[in-house]
């Protein structure tokens, strides 16, 4: 990320972000999911230099907001931070001809979130996300994963086997995929 790139981002609404984080923590509490909450400077992308100075004992995940060729289906794909996303293989596995990144307007429409805070936990606070959640099955091979709790200035760490509990609580379509 370029040094001046953050200057063009929308200002952070700290109160709204704190509320969004708290909704995630409250959900985990109500579902009996143990977690660790870690605050840190905002991280806007997997390549962000800030990320390198944050030490978290978990597999950190990145989240990609994707769409099919004709924009009739959207996906949120979660995978290990350091893993290359093979979108052609994922498209083939899903029966799609091609996948591309969704734009900021569609992201807001589907998840009420801005770029830089995309997370599988964006489901918390979304009334009807109308997308499919995909998780690389590699995340199930570790004891702890870390994702943003709807705020890129925090990471929530928890056991990945709890993901189905979260998805089923919201009644959304999800799948673990081997890509």
CATH top level label: Alpha Beta
Task: Quote the beta fraction.
Answer: 15-25%
Helix coverage percent of residues? 10-25%
Shape descriptor reads globular
What is the domain tally? 1
Specify the CATH homologous superfamily.
YbaK/aminoacyl-tRNA synthetase-associated domain
List the total number of helices: 4
CATH topology: YbaK protein
Radius of gyration: 15 Å
Main sheet summary: 8 strands, mixed
* CATH architecture call: Alpha-Beta Complex
- On the 0 to 100 scale, the average pLDDT is 86
Termini distance?
Answer: 27 Å
- Compressed to H and E, one letter per element, the order equals HEEEHEHEEEHE
Q: Which structural class fits the helix and strand makeup?
A: alpha/beta
Number of strands: 8
Give unreliable regions as ranges.
Answer: 1-8
């Amino acid at each position: 990320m370029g040094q001046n790139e953050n200057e063009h981002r929308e200002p952070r609404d700290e109160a709204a972000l704190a509320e969004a984080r708290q909704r995630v923590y409250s959900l985990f509490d109500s579902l009996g999911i143990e977690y660790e909450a870690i605050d840190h400077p905002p991280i806007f992308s997997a390549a962000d230099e800030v990320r390198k100075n944050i030490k978290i004992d978990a597999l950190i995940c990145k989240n990609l907001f994707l769409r099919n060729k004709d924009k009739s289906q959207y996906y949120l794909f979660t995978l290990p931070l350091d893993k290359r996303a093979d979108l052609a293989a994922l498209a083939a596995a899903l029966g799609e001809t091609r996948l591309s990144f969704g734009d900021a307007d569609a992201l807001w429409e589907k998840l009420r979130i801005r770029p830089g805070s995309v997370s599988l936990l964006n489901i918390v606070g979304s009334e009807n996300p109308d997308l499919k959640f995909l998780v690389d099955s590699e995340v199930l091979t570790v004891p702890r994963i870390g994702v943003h709790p709807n705020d890129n200035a925090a990471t929530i760490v928890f056991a990945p086997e709890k993901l189905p509990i979260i998805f089923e609580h919201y009644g959304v379509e999800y799948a673990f995929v081997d890509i």
